[in-house]
Amino acid sequence: MKIAFWSEEEQVETAFHMSLVACAAVRISPQSIAVVTGGYSGRELEKSFSGKRGNSVLRQPVEKERGHTGQAFLAAEQQEYFLAAGLDCLLGKQKDELTRQTVRANMKQIVKDKLYCLPGSRRKEQEWWQEDSLFVRLKQVMHAVEDCFGLVFFDCGSRKDDFTQSILQEADICVLNMNQESELIGDYYRNPPGFPGKIFFLVGNYFADGLYTRENLQRLYRVDENLLGAIPYNLQLREAARSGRVEKAVRRCMAGNGREGEFERELTRTAKLILRMAGIEV
Fold this sequence. Notes:
Number of domains: 1
Order of helices and strands: EHEHEEEEHHEEHEHEHEHEHHH
CATH topology: Rossmann fold
Low-confidence stretches: 58-83
Mean pLDDT: 84
Helix content: 25-40%
Strand order of the largest sheet: 7-8-2-9-1-10-11-12
Distance between the termini: 17 Å
Structural class: alpha/beta
Radius of gyration: 20 Å
CATH superfamily: P-loop containing nucleotide triphosphate hydrolases
Oligomer: single chain
Shape: globular
CATH class: Alpha Beta
């Protein structure tokens, strides 16, 4: 099942909020979950999971044919073609080579057998990236990832390119991420994007004493309480994400027996609501 996180605004930390929900979801659900970026590169998402926990993704040489001679050579002999495993490696595979074992071997394991992150491409993403010859394989890689996991979380950020739009059109659930005090917050509820999948509203950097509390948003815009989640502002979790230890921080938070108070309650509630929308009872 495909769950896409997206925002109409930039700099609302969609990748961060998605990583928190994913980490909470694997704590309360038996589902295996993959987190991927909705494009070539996903440095912000990867950084949240870059700590030492889990397996490392090794660098490996990529063979390339020399013209029409049919003789293979290591392209690294001429230039830097040693690409990290991950999306770059999978993009070089034929469809029948994208087996479960190959896909998982090119992902970073965050929680054993439950949470994986797909490292993005190391190529510099340009405006013309969709014209890259390997782009045609990006969709088949994502489909292969979906076949390996119960749930796939896509970080679409605030992107509006064709590939992101195709993800949003195909997603079973679209999580619309917004800031609590955004001037556009009313537009999200009055005129939500016309995506075919179910819509879930997520308020990030949430303050319970702010103007637009969950209760006020439900009352003002007649939003079903089960379609609206919140992630309270938490400086410690933000720092943990910056240092690549977001999963460890969420695990410690959710094992705190309520000591984290509002943050733990709201994050757990949000993860449960999204999982239930996906047909998973928790």
